[in-house]
Design brief:
The relative contact order is 0.21. The protein has one domain: Rossmann fold. A 5-stranded parallel beta sheet has the order 3-2-1-4-5, sandwiched between helices. It is built from 7 helices and 5 strands, in the order βααβααβααβαβ.
């Protein structure tokens, strides 16, 4: 029996899920990420819901369309393992902030991916998928595999 192909652990940022829901630009990276060990910080749920509710408010969306949008978001969230934040993640987020100019939640997302990278089996590749250029630039300083959706 030959060696197994590496398994991916895919960290998905909120911006990537919003891009998928919008169907704007390249969505293939996040579609692939959702099919193989998708992970995210527990903040993904809050951020995604806030982004979708804001969109509904900003566009004057009907309550029926808003509910459909939220349902799509919840269906996507159901396929992602959400990692709880703890003292280690907090410390990693502070380390990220020392290395790169990041916003708080970006630091938390990158730190959670770093944590996942540290606990994943050595044969796995950890990928970080985002559509936020600034976040991707910061993530590249500490993670080996970063995908910026264009």
């Amino acid at each position: 029996m030959g060696p197994r192909e590496p398994v991916n652990l895919n960290y998905i940022d909120t911006s990537a899920l919003v891009r998928l829901i919008d169907g704007v630009g390249t969505t293939t990276p996040v579609e692939h990420a959702l099919h193989e060990n998708p992970r995210a910080s527990e903040f993904l749920s809050l951020e995604l819901h806030c982004a979708l509710f804001k969109r509904a408010h900003d566009t004057g969306m009907s309550s029926k369309d808003r509910d459909t949008l939220i349902r799509v978001g919840r269906d996507l969230l159901a396929s992602v393992s959400l990692e709880r934040l703890d003292n280690r993640t907090h410390a990693l987020a502070l380390s990220v902030a020392q290395i790169a100019p990041v916003r708080t939640l970006d630091a938390v997302h990158i730190a959670t991916a770093l944590w996942a990278h540290g606990v994943a089996p050595a044969t796995w590749e950890v990928w970080f998928t985002t559509s936020d250029a600034g976040q991707a630039e910061a993530a590249r300083k500490v993670l080996p595999n970063v995908v910026l959706m264009q």
